Amino acid sequence: MLMQFNNTRKHFASDNYSGVHPAFMQALHTANQGHVAAYGDDYFTHELQRLIKQHFGEQARGYPVFNGTGANVLGLQCLLPRWGAIICPSTAHIHTDESNAPQVVGGCKLMLVESPDGKLTPELIAKEAYGFGNEHRSQPAVVYISQATECGTCYTLDELSNLADATHRYGMKLFVDGARLSNAVCHLQTDFHTMITKTGVDMVSLGGTKNGMMFGECLIDVTGNTGDELRYLRKMSMQTASKMRYISAQLITLLEDELYRTLATHSNAMAMYLSQQLSVLSGVEICYPVEANSVFVRLPDGVADTVRQSFAFYDWGGDGMARLMCSFDTTQQDVDALVSAIKQAM
User: Residue 285 and residue 296: Cα distance in Å, rounded?
Assistant: First the structure.
């Protein structure tokens, strides 16, 4: 029997810490009816494909997977020849937060590029986009970015288009880690088709768990050019869910009636409110533009350790920076309580 517990403590460490939005709980309940075919041959997964095409274009094909690391590794595996390499920012999630999975499971070599704000540019990828045809050098084949980035910044539509154009001129593919894609879409007041399909992105992972789902992400082949490769690789990579309907039902709920937009707009707004409250405090530095649902901040010496006794959050980068993350269920009262604790510690 599960023990009862009362957890009223609010966390600003990660949007993964939040619970599950009731709509996704209802989706799981709806999917939990009777017996259906396994491994994606079910109503929910077929319906999800219709919505993927609606939001990402007629050529797009979606592949539900268990988690974000699985989506990234699987997608990069598919785009990358065995002798290829990935150009990515030094802050990239596949470099800093996914253990050795890209290298060991995906067989990926990473070419790291320093970036002041987590974003790549055509000029920055040019630093590693050389040596084509040289058998002694790994061949750059994929450019990996996050939208929103690990610094909480967002590529504009023009920046994405320019990056995609430059990537394709080199004969490479552009992969977007979209763990917080919904937050970026809301920040730019656009939609998935405009942000991803029209700008020339080749493949994207659509995040769910950071936007209120219980589990699951969706890897999307935007161009449809990979054929059935992703189906085979997904099984090889242990990302093929036997009861896939439970992932698909949640993703349907995320996309249907644009629930993703409602939830991400709220978490973005709470991050902006938090940054506004902190920016007026003497000695507090906001480190990056607040464009999604995270606030990167430097607090006066000793303040973070004191506040951490009541609120959870992550140190970031080893130079005194902290990351404060807002979720779909963060309230203004939660933010006010955190800011009050920071003021008291100062």
Answer: 8
